[in-house]
């Protein structure tokens, strides 16, 4: 019977390829129309890093320190992107919101939610890297 806890390697290859493509755009290797990119290059690079490292994590063994490090770095990159959106994101890019609040109040709510998400990611990163540094969780208990 097939192990349902691990994804097929082809999913990892696709994630790695998408991540490298996004990183290529961020570093100017892949040509794009500058009018279509609405974030600083480092934010785009962080997004590419998330995809690439997710691909690496899928392709490594379940209890590998490489997988744990990739996961921790993914959470850090997601927190950095969320923090950027919270602090410097264009208010015109926020949509949805609470119907009875003004558009300005909805932007404040969106920034708070993104900021809380970023802080949560930073806390998970700190917890994960401390476990990785101590060598915890590398091997399952029998």
Question: Can you offer a commentary on this structure?
Answer:
- It is globular and about 50 Å long.
- The protein is mainly α and 142 residues long.
- The mean pLDDT is 89.
- The chain contains four helices and no strands.
- It folds into two domains: 7-55; 60-142.
Write down the oligomeric state: single chain
Query: Major sheet: size, sense and barrel closure?
Result: none
Distance between the termini: 21 Å
Count of DSSP strands: 0
Shape field:
globular
Poorly predicted sequence stretches spanning 5 or more consecutive residues: none
> Could you give the order of the helices and strands?
HHHH
Keywords: Membrane, Transmembrane, Transmembrane helix
Transmembrane segments: 7-30, 42-61, 68-88, 108-127
Write a short abstract of this structure:
This protein is mainly α and about 140 residues long. The chain contains 4 helices and no strands.
Essential attributes:
transmembrane helix; single chain; 2 domains; mainly alpha; 142 residues
Helix and strand arrangement:
Blueprint lengths: L8 H18 L14 H19 L5 H24 L14 H32 L8
């Amino acid at each position: 019977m097939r192990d349902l806890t691990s994804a097929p390697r082809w999913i990892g290859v696709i994630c790695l390829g998408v991540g490298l493509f996004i990183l290529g755009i961020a570093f100017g290797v892949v040509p794009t129309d500058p009018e279509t990119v609405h974030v600083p290059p480092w934010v785009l690079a962080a997004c590419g890093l998330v995809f690439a490292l997710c691909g690496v994590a899928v392709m490594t063994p379940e209890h590998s320190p490489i997988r744990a490090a990739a996961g921790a770095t993914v959470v850090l990159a997601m927190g950095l992107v969320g923090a950027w959106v919270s602090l410097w994101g264009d208010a015109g890019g926020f949509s949805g919101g609470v119907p009875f609040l003004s558009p300005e109040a909805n932007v404040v709510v969106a920034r708070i939610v993104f900021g809380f998400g970023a802080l949560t990611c930073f806390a998970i990163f700190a917890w994960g890297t401390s476990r990785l540094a101590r060598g915890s969780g590398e091997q399952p208990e029998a």
